[in-house]
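Sequence design from tokenized structure. All designs in this work follow the same two-part layout: the structure record, then the generated sequence. An example of the structure record is given first.
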């Protein structure tokens, strides 16, 4: 086998991209390489041949398709961190190189899901398939269920998968770190289980957030959050509203909470929350009735 250390770093990056696509999307094509790296057809073909030489068991190629598909007897050439993969899958990183432009100190997130679980989920999302999972919930412990996933969600602290839960017959978020196992499933996926039917995901809520009236220096907050005319306006998916308000610790009570110095922000337009399902996460939310 060829020593990876003897391969030029530019080609290693492309080989790593091939494996990334296979492992986390289940498929890649020559056109993907050409578009992603701006290389010619001949160079892309050489990269595919090199990857085939290094890992001949990892993909199949049908003469009837332009795509190369993940093989069942798969073996990884490269290591991937779950945070790196999730950031790239969701477009949160600009490129795959490890070059550092500016010195920094970033705390590693505690939440680091199992990479094989991330791979199984991402392939299901990309290919619009269902998966069978073993999942730990706070209320029911470990259970097995069929889920039709359609998105990853990062709430600022940990990663979730959003999808249709057949057991509960509704769309919901699932903490990825609570999965014990995830397996591909060949069951049919129905229209009511697809992303376009997820009302909470598709609804956008406009939040108007202002300095809390008890906060002593509202001008400082307005500057910190780049508020316009004293208001921070954010458009958030209804399915993520609770996470957002919780993360910023926004006072959502009908009347501004008094004597609690840790509230810096307050929600100005509470009526925008009508119909949002995860308001149990919104700090001090006490309903709509007067």
């Amino acid at each position: 086998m060829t020593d990876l250390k003897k391969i030029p770093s530019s080609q290693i990056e492309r080989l790593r991209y091939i494996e990334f696509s296979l492992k986390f999307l289940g498929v890649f094509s020559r056109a993907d390489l050409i578009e992603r790296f701006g290389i010619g057809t001949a160079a892309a073909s050489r990269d595919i041949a090199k990857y085939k030489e290094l890992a001949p068991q990892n993909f199949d190629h049908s003469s009837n398709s332009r795509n190369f598909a993940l093989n069942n007897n798969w073996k990884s050439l490269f290591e991937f961190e779950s945070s790196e993969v999730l950031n790239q899958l969701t477009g949160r990183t600009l490129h795959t190189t490890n070059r550092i432009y500016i010195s920094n100190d970033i705390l590693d997130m505690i939440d680091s899901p199992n990479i094989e679980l991330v791979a199984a989920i991402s392939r299901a999302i990309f290919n619009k398939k269902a998966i069978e999972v073993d999942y730990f919930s706070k209320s029911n412990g470990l259970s097995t269920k069929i889920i039709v996933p359609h998105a990853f969600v990062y709430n600022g602290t940990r990663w979730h998968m959003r999808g249709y839960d057949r057991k509960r017959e509704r769309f919901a978020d699932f903490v990825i770190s609570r999965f014990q196992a995830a397996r591909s499933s060949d069951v049919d996926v129905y229209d009511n289980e697809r992303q376009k039917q997820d009302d909470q995901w598709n609804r956008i809520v406009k939040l108007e957030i202002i300095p809390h009236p008890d906060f002593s220096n509202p001008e400082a907050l307005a500057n910190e959050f780049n508020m316009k005319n004293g208001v921070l306006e954010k458009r958030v998916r209804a399915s993520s509203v609770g996470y957002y308000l919780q993360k910023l610790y926004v006072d959502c009570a009908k009347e501004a909470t008094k004597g609690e110095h840790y509230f810096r922000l307050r929600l100005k337009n509470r009526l925008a929350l009508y119909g949002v399902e995860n308001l149990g996460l919104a700090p001090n939310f006490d309903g709509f009735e007067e």
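The helical segments are 9-25, 30-37, 41-54, 82-89, 115-126, 199-202, 218-224, 241-248. We note this feature because it recurs in several other targets discussed in the main text.
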